[in-house]
Design brief:
Elements (H helix, E strand, L loop, with lengths): L4 H26 L1 H6 L1 H7 L4 H13 L1 H28 L2 H6 L2 H5 L5 H25 L1 H5 L8 H28 L3 H19 L15 H10 L4 H24 L3
């Protein structure tokens, strides 16, 4: 069966995202022995920035588990994931309007609800599947540096990370159902993400940053407790559900 152009593009983008995440993970884990030897020196260098100082203190105390959580989730998945969520979400519907193919999309013999849900699910799979697939490789990669980690709690961290990115994706998706300029939507979401990351590093305003919901401390709590953070999970579920319902309502009334 011949795949549609949008599905082929989705597969290629998903594979690129997967490969990028895995390459970053491999490089980080192979660097672990050198990092472990120089943690003390790095903590001194980070002293002028309180947030970085606290992060290095946790890395020194918790060891390889904190290192993997910070490198894979807080750094890799947050940075790449937010970018991918912005790009995929912004193009989901607004991309059709921008290319002048919205009328063709709406002429398909399917309900608008089904069309929208197919788009949302396809994008959601692109964002989340690479997170789980790369997470599954962590124990094997750690054997290369004579370390080990428990996979179960690590997968719970992957669930939390996926929900966080799905919330960002759902907000972008809602904007896409209303707009016609995907590049402007993507740029706005990326600026929003960069702003939140920048204030995360400022101790006096760090609690206003969205990245407090998916930082190393949060992932450590999930990993060590072996359970999801109930409050944060409810936040994410509420954001995803509200944005998806709003997207359905907007798309039902949308004209080409």
């Amino acid at each position: 069966m011949k795949l549609s152009r949008s599905v082929r593009n989705s597969i290629f983008m998903g594979l690129g995202y997967l490969i990028a995440l895995e390459l970053m993970l491999v490089a980080a884990i192979l660097f672990w022995p050198n990092f472990e030897e120089n943690t003390g020196a790095l903590k001194l260098l980070a002293a002028p920035i309180p947030m970085l100082k606290d992060m290095f203190a946790q890395l020194e105390a918790k060891g390889v588990s904190a290192y993997v959580l910070s490198q894979h989730f807080f750094k890799g998945c947050n940075v790449l994931g937010c970018a991918v969520a912005a790009l995929i979400g912004s193009a989901a519907i607004a991309g059709e309007a921008h290319r002048g193919t919205m009328e063709i999309l709406l002429m398909r013999p399917l309900s608008r609800r089904r069309i929208l849900m197919e788009r949302w699910l396809l994008g959601g799979a692109q964002i989340t599947l690479p997170i789980f697939l790369t997470t599954l490789t962590v124990p094997l990669l750690l054997t290369q540096v004579d370390e080990s980690i428990t996979l179960g709690p690590l997968l719970l961290c992957a669930v939390h990370q996926s929900l966080f990115l799905l919330a960002i994706y759902s907000i972008t998706f809602l904007l896409s159902t209303k707009g016609r300029a995907p590049l402007q939507i993507a740029f706005g979401m990326l600026v929003f993400a960069i702003f939140n990351f920048s204030i995360y590093m400022v101790k006096t305003v760090t609690h206003w940053s969205l990245f407090r919901l998916a930082d190393m401390e949060t992932f450590l709590d999930i990993y060590e407790s072996g359970s999801l953070h109930t409050t944060y999970t409810l936040y994410f579920a509420a954001a995803i559900g509200a944005c998806l319902l709003a997207s359905l309502a907007v798309f039902e009334r949308r004209v080409p």
